[in-house]
From TrEMBL:
Transmembrane segments: none annotated. Keywords: FAD, Flavoprotein, Oxidoreductase. It comes from Blastococcus deserti. PROSITE patterns: FAD_PCMH. This is FAD-binding oxidoreductase. Residues 37-218 form the FAD-binding PCMH-type domain. Belongs to the FAD-binding oxidoreductase/transferase type 4 family.
Amino acid sequence: MTAADVPALLRETVGEGALITDPAGMGSYLTDWRNAWSGAAAAVVRPGSTEEVAAVVRACRTAGVAVVPQGGNTGLCGGSMPDSSGRQVVLSLDRMRRIRGVDPVDLTITAEAGVVLRSVQQAAAAEGCLFPLSLGSEASCTIGGNLATNAGGTGVLRYGNMRDLTLGLEVVLPDGRIWNGLRALRKDNTGYDLKQLFVGAEGTLGVITAAVLKLFPAVRSRATAWVALPSPQAAVDLIGVVRALCGDRLTGFEVMSRQSVDFVLRHQAGARDLFADVHPWYALVELSDTLPDAGLDGLLEAGLAEAFEREVAADAVVASGSAQVAALWALREGISEAQNFEGPSLKHDVTVPVSSIPAFVERTDRALQAALPGIRIVTYGHIGDGNLHYNLSKPAGSDDAAFRAMAGELARVVYDSTSSFDGSISAEHGLGQSKRDVIADYKDGLELELMRGIKRLLDPPGLMNPGKVLPSA
């Protein structure tokens, strides 16, 4: 079968209305949102049900055509992009946007893979509940993509990542069979936890079509502070101070370098510096509680007072209302977009033990400056769980192409340093295409062997999102 035969096959499977074959119509499915990754496809198919997904996968399996599952196309590693051959089929879940049920007693929500994350948050809130996953792309990323990449975000410190928030899955396997694992059980000790095979697999083992997710009681009070810090060590110390005093009420702890904040102040309308003095690092600290009047402002202020006494914090402001809370979070969440105005952005999503963060930052910064003097290092992230977005911008005034040409060398500096601290080169963005081959140098060979064995078991022809996650053998 040639690529030209594929549209006719899919048309028979799901009908004309669910198929896109013209180049203009396929365009947004074949280039990622950053224009960093692009590909070609024989067709884009948009099934509207799990049964239709299964029919598409079966038809492609029979024809020997590879399937590339795609959610909101907001990924950062090229995991949902087809290759350049024009023979692969992009299977978009963007029509599967039904919330099948919300259960405030069991504290669960069942959503299809194409449901946008914000819609899940809103459906939970309508029932007096909280779905705690929160990302900068939550208005466009989908639950299927969140599951495929094991998304993290700002609430991992308290609630865990997507793997921790998942109770059950519905998955179309590479041979077209449907595994109905949509169980809402908190305890099920009947053998292997199969759902965990598919969370974080980036569509290489099957197509997630729906999930049962955990909900929590709604948050009714918050306290948020912006804290100036002298160093990454001070950030780690501050976590200890606040956690010891506040326990699980500590639900957010973000750290940002001054370089990160400078970019936001320069490029984000309305952003302003909160302190008269410039500080090398900042933290955004948030407490939350289910009680409407939990006294969190006083609790946070007590923690900050102790931090001042220990010379951990240099300055701080506690937000006085929802508008100021939003302004503080805008400083944090605007970093990635603001960096784009400064030219090419080399993004790295790494994790090391929290206690190792100060030494990691010091060593990696020094190595990068040696590799490229004047490089601007944009470090920020979820320091409470050891996850740093360690992004790089070119030296001011330098050439874009020359900087891009150094991407591999600079990535090796970051990854080698990460590995030396027993860290991971991907904390929450996945491997996709961008880290597929390099992971072989940083992951134990036996782990890769086991991963390949699982892939061969479930997808012997290798037609499910090929060229992602697993390095070439």
